[in-house]
Known about the structure:
Layout: H1 2-23, E1 27-30, H2 50-53, H3 57-73, H4 75-93, H5 99-130, H6 133-141, E2 151-153, E3 156-158, E4 166-169
Antiparallel strand pairs: 1-4, 2-3
Amino acid sequence: MKKMIIAVLAIALLATAGVAMAQGWGRGMGSGPGYGPGSGPGPGPRGALGPALNLTPEQTQKMQALRESFFKETIPQRNELQIKQLELRTLWAQTTPDQEKILAKQKEINALRAQLQEKTTMHRLEMRKVLTPEQQAQLGAYGPGFGPGYGMRGGMMGGGYGPGRGMGYGVCPRW
């Protein structure tokens, strides 16, 4: 009888722990459902459009080099953006948030995002130059948001399609 009670309690504990872990940290900015700049299938070797565009090995290699260069070039801005976002969270977490400091920090974050968006746009335009006119025409058939773009995803640069940055369940403590 004791073994049966222990087994039932262990199963109940595991079931409630699983439910608690599935809830996450709470609602806030994080890597939840939503699409960020450049999200969408890209023509790279891992992107959903790569096979559809019939990229040559040279095109694939050139695109990979452009991607790596872009990621390296934007490391300082991405790191600074993450630091500013953390600072903003800290300001919001205070018992009496300072409106002026929060608004000032939000302006800094918006300026960094604008810089990154501009660099992302330039990167996407450079990636399009690698494609032939026929391949570029194929991109147009998929509509806006599709193409050789890789954007912010969960605070890191990521490619392909799927959830990007947006309002959702992320790593934001409950206030």
